[in-house]
Write a structure and sequence with these properties.
The complex is a heterodimer of chains A (756) and B (151).
Chain A: H1 44-47, E1 50-53, E2 56-58, E3 64-68, H2 77-89, E4 96-100, H3 117-144, E5 151-154, E6 157-160, E7 165-168, H4 169-177, H5 207-212, E8 227-232, E9 240-245, H6 247-250, E10 255-261, E11 275-280, H7 283-291, E12 294-298, H8 307-318, E13 323-328, H9 331-337, E14 343-350, E15 362-368, E16 371-376, H10 381-392, E17 399-403, H11 417-429, E18 433-436, H12 439-444, E19 452-460, E20 466-474, H13 491-494, E21 507-513, H14 528-546, H15 551-559, H16 586-600, E22 611-620, E23 623-633, E24 639-649, H17 656-675, E25 681-682, E26 685-686, E27 705-710, H18 725-740
Parallel strand pairs in A: 3-4, 8-18, 16-17, 20-21, 24-27
Antiparallel strand pairs in A: 1-2, 2-3, 5-6, 6-7, 8-11, 9-12, 10-11, 13-21, 14-19, 15-16, 15-18, 19-20, 22-23, 23-24, 25-26
Chain B: E1 2-6, E2 9-13, H1 21-28, E3 47-50, E4 53-56, H2 62-65, E5 69-71, H3 73-76, H4 83-90, H5 100-113, H6 119-126, H7 136-149
Parallel strand pairs in B: 1-5
Antiparallel strand pairs in B: 1-2, 3-4, 3-5
Chain lengths: 756, 151
C-alpha cells in the first residue's frame, strides 16, 4: 500500500513534450478553454463526470473538485486560486475539495515564485469556473425547456426564478457533461459586486490539519520499501570526492550501503552537488553513518573564496564607473560641476543570505520500470520533471512529480537539486530513496541570495534635495548558476528596485558592475529588491537628515507628483507583466506613503534618543508598499520593535486576511535579515551551519505588532508574498538611525559593529 | 530493549537506544506530526510532552525517554480539538504550518504553568520555537485567546 495522503494519485501522462528552457520573466498560462482533459485522468477533477477543463470536476453528489496547480508553502495559494474558481462557478465553498496537481505542463506555469500566482492565473481561474457554470445553466435550461437567459445560479444550484424551479449542481453534472465546452466569448462573468469569495477571502483549506499534525509535508512522505539517505556534499562549491572510505560507516547499525554521487557538470543549475550518500533503515542511522565516512576532497576552483576579501572587491568595483542601465540628463557632468559640500556619497552592503525554511530539503523518489515517481515539497514540479529526466536519461513525461505541502520555501524549493539526488540514488540502488538534508546541509548548500555592494553619490541643491543621483550596484547574478561566465545583473533582477528607481530627477545614472559567483546564487523572498530597496531607501533617509527635513516629507518630495515612469529605450521586464496593464505609477507609491504616515500617526511621533521611527517606500512584484517601523534601543544596544505599520496597494486583493498575514510575516523575515542574516565563507567553506550561527528572528525579537492597511484599488492583482520585505528592511534601519544616530550601511546589525 | 509509552500506548524498541525520540516517533512509529527542524534543540519544531513537560525530542535519546509518558500532537486533538488548537484556528495562526505542532505543544505547556501569561511570559515561554514564516503575532494572540477562554 502507498501510504501517501493529500498528494495527487499517480497517473500516466500522455503526449507531454516539455521544453527545458528556464525562463525568468515570462510565464506560460494555458488556453484553458480549448483544452481537453486527459482521458485517463490524473486528478479527482479529471475523473468526475463533469470536467470541462483541467481545473474543475463536478460529481453527481455535488462535490466540486478544484485543482490547485501551485505549491502551498504558507501563502494559502492552494486556497486562494481555487476560491476564485469557486466564486465564478458559484459553488458552495464547503462542498469544494482541493486536488493538488502533479507537475504537468497542461496547467501552464507551476513555478510558485515571483509572487505572481494570482496575477497570472486570476483570469484563467475565473474562466474555468465560469465555463463549468455555463454548462450547468445550459443543462438546466434544456431540462426545463426554458431559455438559458432566464436561468441564474445560487450557490451550488441553478434557479429558474419564473417558475421557482431549482436543480443542484450534482443533479445536473451528467447532463452538463454531454454539452460542448463553451468558447470564451460565450461566457459571462460575475460583476465584482456579486463576488462571494474574491476580495472577501477564506482561511487556508488545510487550516485544521496544520494545527493537528495531520498535514503531510515532503518530510512525511513514505512508501513501502524505501530507504533513508543522508549525503555528505563537497564542502566547497564545485569540489568533488577524490577518494573515500566507507568501512566505519557500514558498521553503524541500520546502515545498508554508501553511494557516490557524481559532481555536477558546470553550470550547476539544479544538478546534484555530488558527494557520498549513506543509505539506511531510518534517518538517524543514515545521519550517524554519514559522520563515520572518511572522505578526501578535491576542492576545486573556489577553494580561495573568502567572503571578507570578496566584500572589499565588491566595494572596490562599486566605486568605479560601470555599465549604465538607465540614465536621465548627464549625471557625471553634473557631479563634476557640483561643489564638494553639496556632494554626498555612501556605500551600502548586504551579505549572502540563506533561506532556512523550517522544513529542510527532503525528497522521496522511486525509479521503477524506467519511470520515476517523486514526492517532494517543491515550488516547481515541472523543474523537477526536467532535472530528473536529464539526470536519469528518461523522457520528461516518465517523471511523475507529486507535490506535498512545503514546510516553507521562500524560493529555495524552486531549485530541485535535492529531488534530483533522491532520483539518482533510487536508480542506483533499485529501491525508493528518501533524501533528508540536515539543517547544516541546508545552511551550507543553499542557493544564496546574492551578496551586494552598492555605491551612491548625489549632488543636492540649497534645500538639500538631489539634482543628481548616481547609484551603482554590484552583485554576483543568479544567472551564474546557468552560465558560468555571467557576472552582470540580468535585466529581470536589475528591474527589481534598481532600474526603476522612481525619483523624478534631472540627472540620474543607474549602473551595474561585474561580480563573479563562488557559491550558488538563487532567488530568496524579494530577491534583488532586498538590497536595492535597502540602499535606495536608507540613502534617501540619509539625505533627508542631512537636509534637516522630515524623512516622510522628504520622501514624498523625491517621489514627486503622480506620473508614469517612462521606460522607453530601457530594458525593464516589469516582472514579466506588460507596462500597459501594469504601468509604474508613482502616484500609487506616493499614496501608500501618505496612508502609512497617517495610519502610523507619523506627524505626532517624534524620535528621541532610544526611541525612533523610520519610514521607507518600495515597489516590488508590481505592488506598492510603504512601511513605518518603531524601535526602542536601550543603553545596552538591545533593539525591540514595538510596532510596524505597512500600507499596501496590490491592486485587486483576492484574499485580504491571507494578504495581511503575508505582510506580517514579511516584517519578521525582514527582521532576520537586518538583525543577523549573514552567510560568510573562508577557504571556500560556508562558516554557518544552524540556527546558532545563522539565527533567525524569534518571538522576542520580532515586531510586537504589525498593522497592515490594504488600499482599495481597481488595478489588476499584483504580488503579496514578497513586497513586504524590502520597505521593512529600510524602514527598520532608518528607525535605528532615528533612535541612535547610527547609520546602518552594512547588514546585518550583528556584524556591523554598531551595537556592541 | 527500551520501553516507552507514547500517547497512552506502550511500545518496546530493540534498536539503537541513542536514537533521538524524534526519529523513533517519525520513522518507527509513523507519528509524523512532530517535525525535524534543526536537530540540536534550537528551533522547537520537534517539541513533545514528557510527563506533561515540553521537551525537544530531537536531542532526547530514547534511553532518556524510557519510562516516561510521551504525548505528541497526534494525541492532543484526538478527542476533539484542544482549546489551544481552537484558538490557533480562530486567529488563523499558521502559514506553512510546519513549526506549528511544536508551537502548540510548547503553548500548552506554557499555559499549564502560566494560565494567564503576560506578553513577557509568552516571549519567555515561546522564544525557543522558531517560525520562519513569522506568525509570532498570531501565536501571541492565540495564546492569549486560549487563556481567556479557559478563564
Amino acid at each position: 500500500m502507498r501510504s501517501i495522503e493529500n498528494v495527487s494519485r499517480r497517473g500516466f501522462l500522455k503526449g507531454v513534450a516539455g521544453t527545458g528552457a528556464f525562463v525568468l520573466a515570462v510565464r506560460y498560462v494555458p488556453p484553458i478553454l480549448s483544452h481537453h482533459p486527459a482521458p485517463d485522468g490524473q486528478t479527482e477533477a479529471d475523473r468526475a463526470p463533469l470536467h470541462p477543463n483541467a481545473f474543475v470536476g463536478i460529481e453527481t453528489d455535488g462535490t466540486v473538485h478544484i485543482v490547485a496547480h501551485r505549491s502551498e508553502m504558507g501563502t494559502a495559494i492552494r486556497t486562494t486560486l481555487p476560491l476564485v474558481v469557486a466564486d465564478e462557478l458559484d459553488a458552495d465553498w464547503n462542498r469544494v475539495k482541493i486536488d493538488q496537481a502533479i507537475g504537468d505542463k497542461r496547467y501552464g506555469d507551476q513555478n510558485t515564485d515571483g509572487s505572481h500566482s494570482v496575477r497570472s492565473f486570476f483570469d484563467t481561474m475565473r474562466e474555468c469556473g465560469a465555463s463549468a457554470r455555463w454548462m450547468l445553466v445550459q443543462a438546466a435550461a434544456q431540462k426545463w425547456n426554458v431559455p438559458a437567459s432566464e436561468c441564474s445560479t445560487a450557490p451550488h444550484t441553478v434557479v429558474h426564478a419564473k417558475s421557482g424551479r431549482k436543480l443542484g449542481y450534482g443533479e445536473l453534472a451528467s447532463a452538463a457533461a454531454r454539452l460542448d465546452v463553451p468558447k470564451k466569448e460565450q461566457l459571462t462573468f460575475k460583476k465584482p459586486a456579486e463576488w462571494r469569495y474574491i476580495g472577501k477571502g477564506e482561511t487556508s483549506y488545510d487550516l485544521e490539519k496544520l494545527c493537528t499534525g495531520k498535514a503531510i509535508y515532503g518530510i512525511d512522505a513514505k512508501i513501502e520499501g524505501m530507504v533513508y539517505a543522508s549525503i555528505e556534499h563537497p564542502p566547497v562549491y564545485g569540489g568533488k570526492v577524490k577518494s573515500y572510505d566507507e568501512q566505519e560507516a557500514l558498521k553503524v547499525s541500520g546502515v545498508h550501503q554508501t553511494m557516490l554521487i557524481d559532481p555536477f557538470k558546470p553550470p550547476a543549475a539544479f544538478q546534484p552537488l555530488g558527494g557520498v550518500a549513506v543509505l539506511a533503515d531510518n534517518t538517524w542511522a543514515a545521519f550517524q553513518g554519514r559522520k563515520k565516512l572518511k572522505i578526501t576532497w578535491d576542492n576545486g576552483a573556489n577553494e580561495g573564496y573568502d567572503s571578507a576579501e570578496y566584500k572589499k572587491e565588491l566595494q572596490e568595483t562599486a566605486r568605479k564607473p560601470a555599465k549604465v542601465i538607465r540614465s536621465v540628463g548627464d549625471a557625471n557632468a553634473a557631479l563634476a560641476a557640483a561643489s564638494g559640500s553639496n556632494v554626498v556619497e555612501a556605500e551600502y552592503y548586504v551579505p549572502l543570505l540563506a533561506h532556512a525554511p523550517m522544513e529542510p530539503m527532503v525528497a522521496l523518489a522511486e525509479f521503477k520500470d524506467g519511470k520515476a515517481t517523486i514526492w517532494a515539497p517543491t515550488q516547481n514540479p515541472q523543474a523537477v520533471q526536467a532535472i530528473v529526466s536529464t539526470e536519469l536519461g528518461i523522457p520528461k513525461e516518465d517523471v511523475i512529480c507529486n507535490v506535498t505541502l512545503l514546510g516553507g520555501g521562500f524560493g529555495r524549493k524552486s531549485k530541485p537539486d535535492y529531488v534530483a539526488e533522491a532520483a539518482v540514488l533510487s536508480k542506483k540502488v533499485g529501491r525508493p530513496v528518501k533524501v533528508m538534508w540536515t539543517r547544516e546541509d541546508d545552511i551550507k548548500f543553499d542557493y544564496y541570495n546574492a551578496v551586494a555592494g552598492m555605491y551612491f553619490k548625489a549632488a543636492v541643491d540649497a534645500k538639500g534635495k538631489p539634482t543628481t543621483w548616481l547609484q551603482r550596484s554590484v552583485f554576483p547574478p543568479i544567472t551564474s548558476i546557468f552560465d558560468v561566465n555571467a557576472v552582470y545583473g540580468d535585466p529581470p533582477h536589475l528591474a527589481q528596485g534598481w532600474t526603476d528607481m522612481p525619483y523624478d530627477l534631472p540627472n540620474l545614472s543607474i549602473e551595474n558592475g561585474p561580480a563573479k559567483a563562488h557559491v550558488r546564487i538563487g532567488w530568496l523572498r524579494s530577491v534583488a529588491n532586498i538590497y536595492h530597496g535597502f540602499g535606495i531607501q536608507c540613502f534617501t533617509d540619509e539625505l533627508a537628515h542631512r537636509a534637516h527635513r522630515d524623512p516622510y516629507e522628504y520622501l514624498l518630495d523625491l517621489i514627486g507628483p503622480a506620473r508614469t515612469i517612462d521606460f522607453k529605450n530601457v530594458e525593464y521586464p516589469n516582472y514579466g507583466a506588460s507596462l500597459e496593464t501594469y504601468p509604474w505609477e508613482t502616484g500609487r507609491l506616493r499614496h501608500v506613503t501618505e496612508v502609512v504616515a497617517e495610519k502610523s500617526g507619523w506627524a505626532k511621533k517624534k524620535s528621541v534618543k532610544g526611541h525612533g521611527f523610520g519610514i521607507a517606500a518600495h515597489k516590488s512584484f508590481l505592488t506598492y508598499v510603504a512601511t513605518v517601523v518603531e524601535v526602542e534601543v536601550n543603553d545596552q544596544g538591545e533593539i525591540r520593535i514595538p510596532r510596524v505599520d505597512t500600507a499596501v496597494d496590490a491592486g485587486l486583493i483576492a484574499n485580504p486576511e491571507i494578504t495581511r498575514a503575508q505582510f506580517e510575516g514579511a516584517a519578521v523575515f525582514g527582521t532576520s535579515i537586518v538583525r543577523t542574516g549573514e552567510i560568510t565563507a573562508k577557504n571556500g567553506v560556508i562558516q554557518q551551519s544552524n540556527f546558532n550561527d545563522y539565527p533567525v528572528a524569534r518571538i522576542n525579537e520580532a515586531p510586537r505588532q504589525t498593522n497592515v492597511y490594504l488600499v482599495e484599488s481597481s488595478a489588476p492583482p499584483a504580488g503579496v508574498g514578497e513586497p513586504g520585505v524590502p520597505p521593512f528592511v529600510a524602514a527598520f534601519c532608518n528607525a535605528i538611525y532615528a533612535a541612535t544616530g547610527k547609520r546602518v550601511r552594512n547588514l546585518p546589525l550583528s556584524s556591523s559593529g554598531l551595537f556592541g | 530493549m527500551v520501553k516507552i509509552n507514547v500517547n497512552g500506548i506502550d511500545h518496546s524498541f530493540d534498536g539503537d537506544p541513542s536514537m533521538p525520540l524524534l526519529w523513533y516517533l517519525r520513522d518507527v512509529l509513523g507519528l509524523t506530526g512532530t517535525k525535524f527542524g534543526c536537530g540540536i534543540a534550537l528551533c522547537g519544531a520537534c517539541t513533545v510532552h514528557s510527563n506533561g513537560e515540553a521537551i525537544r525530542s530531537c536531542i532526547t535519546p530514547l534511553s532518556a525517554a524510557a519510562g516516561s509518558k510521551i504525548r505528541t500532537i497526534e494525541d492532543v486533538g484526538a478527542n476533539g480539538l484542544h482549546p489551544v488548537q481552537k484558538a490557533w484556528i480562530e486567529v488563523n495562526a499558521p502559514q506553512c504550518g510546519y513549526c506549528q505542532s511544536g508551537q502548540i505543544m510548547q503553548a500548552i505547556a506554557l499555559l499549564k504553568s502560566k494560565p494567564h501569561p503576560t506578553d513577557q511570559d509568552i516571549e519567555d515561554g515561546m522564544a525557543g520555537n522558531i517560525c520562519r514564516c513569522g506568525t509570532y503575532q498570531r501565536i501571541r494572540a492565540a495564546i492569549k485567546l486560549a487563556a481567556e477562554k479557559s478563564a
